[in-house]
Amino acid sequence: MNKTLRNPWTYVLFLLPLLVLYIMFFVYPMISAFTTGFMKWNGLTEPHFNGLTNFKHAFNDDKFWQSVFNNGKFILFSVFVQVPIIIFFSLLISNVKKLRGLYKTAVFVPSVMSTAVIGILWSFIYEPDIGLFNLILTRIGLQPVMWLSDSHWAMFSILLTNAWQWTGFYIVMVLAAILSIPREIDEAAIVDGASAFKRATKITVPLIMPVISVVIMLSIAGAMKAADIIIVMTDGGPGGITDVMATYLIKYGITNAKYGYGNSIGVLIFLFSLILTALYQVLFARRVERVEY
Amino acid sequence: MKKSVLVSSLSLVLATTTVLSTAGAATKTDTIVIRHTQLGEAKQQRLNILKDVLARVSKEVPGVKYKLDGVDSDVNRKEKLRSEMVVNKAPAIFDLFGGTDTQLYVEANRLLDLTPILKELGLSNKFISLDEFKVNGKVYGLPIGGYQEGYFYNKDYFKAHNLSVPKTLSELESLAATIKKDGKTPFAQASKAAWVPLMTANTLWSRYAGPDITNGFTTGKTKWNSTQMVAAFTKYQDWVKKGYFKQGELGLDYAEQRNQLIRGEAIMMYDGSWASSVFSDPKQAGSLTNKVGYFALPSVSGGKGSQTAVNGGFSNGYGFSSKVKNNKQQYAFVKSFIKNMYNDEMQIRGLEADGVLPSMKVSSSKLANAKVSGLVKEIIEVGNKASGAFPAFDSLVQPDVNTALSEGIQKLIAGKTTPKAMLDAVQKAQNAANSNEDF
Fold it and tell me: Which of A63, A148, A261 lies at the smallest CB-CB distance from B251?
């Protein structure tokens, strides 16, 4: 046995199944996307190399930039609206003594539901005549809002639904971090006369910064690959106003039978995600100190 | 146990299993996948017809099992089937649209040439028109039925308010103004999918610019941003501005437009003849059952060309994978499927149960005896009175142009563009598609 474990080929053999899967589902599609991204190809007939034409077309297309901008909105909403809400609710739930499990389960449930179900459910809430939101608005004497069809509100409506779906998942993560902080630290602060607000902002939040950093990173990754919720709720409409890069790829790559162009958009999504991740690591994540209690 | 005994017994097991598995393979039953789009209550009758056809086929070709695969029509057409065609993994039998879709797949040799099968089954001259499924004289798809587009309207409301079917566009507009004044929505519409409002727009522009104008876009002979086209879309936007459609309809799914009519919230609805079966089913239409009438979009004063032509044709049906040809059993299954699906009996059944207009030349006596609803009779009558039919724009223009137009109409409804700016953008997309741009 020891002899076997000393043989490096044994480890190669153990890794082989995973490596095969990794190559099949990640490396090969990526190489294939990179190569066909430089081709004119309708997916059916012979492709031919067209240099940087696909990329030039994307950069000159206002609709592409509109979709990039919408991905940006997803990221900004996640980081500046969703994350503070996650922290706030996590702090609240961590201080609850009774029924904490119930609260945790209640906030977590949306994240295990299918996006299609959530999209349809919220479409009812946004319905112009009988939707919950407009019923409330009209009851208090305000004008109803055309949530999914008004270009001013459509993107916000999707962002809100997306946030509702994922907030609970992140709350559970942050909550676990809060609950792992030794109680003595908090008790010492109480003895020193620190208020609940001060304890939360000066002790708890700094101590859970590594987890918050992960939450932000996951939110950015989620924002970059958002597509399903948009397809179900607006299908990029009205008039492409809610398209993100992934739905732009589907519309202009698959629907328009321009697979070469679609792959070039895939490459751009990959590069943008890479740049964002690198920027986040350099500017923020590395500065977060790892805390050992 | 001796090593040689072990080796010989293992070899025997291996040889036996190999022989047995080969024998199994020889009698193995093929499984054929049939992609259909008959989902939901409104298409239940059509699904029943498909199931009955398949039951007959199974008796004729016993060695082949089949599996039904239901997918939403738009998703199948624009995403799923297209992706499957790319990797050459399309089902053996699938829902197919004629025109540009068929041409694209034929270029890549993905569709089965049906010409010899039709000849063998004596069906070559039995279809009213196979033009949309023909490429270089060969047939690659078979329309399941015909369709026609026009206005469905609430008969009781018309009667109660002393309204009559309009003969001109200005009469239609004054009708809409009266309905609006009464606090109702004149036109039911749900435009989350852009093809829904484009049905009205397609006939409107064919009234203003002539029914043949769409044929010229791909050749460059006609232009999207011509004066008549701008006039048609200006009229459309005018209706939007006057509130003739439900507010917020851009966020509603297609099925919702029927509900607007059924609930009595809206009085007229522009839709295809395929929607007619809903109005003869009490479960779906409720109190509006058999109380819906039908008329064509009326003539435009000063409009170009025929003013009675209807948007109609035979563009949707079944296509078959070219791979089927290499498998004798599957080929026999396909042949039997065509024989059992495309005959007078099924055409009449489709007409009676679902209001689908025949795509085949059914004998006039059988047609006269068909038990169809009053609404279907009205639809057939409108078709008979029409000077001709023009196909839907999406079977004539390239997918890029369809996408540009789809975005444009939604922006127009949202008030985010003008008819001229929108049509300039569509023409730009058309020019790019016609020039076979390098991307």
Answer: A148
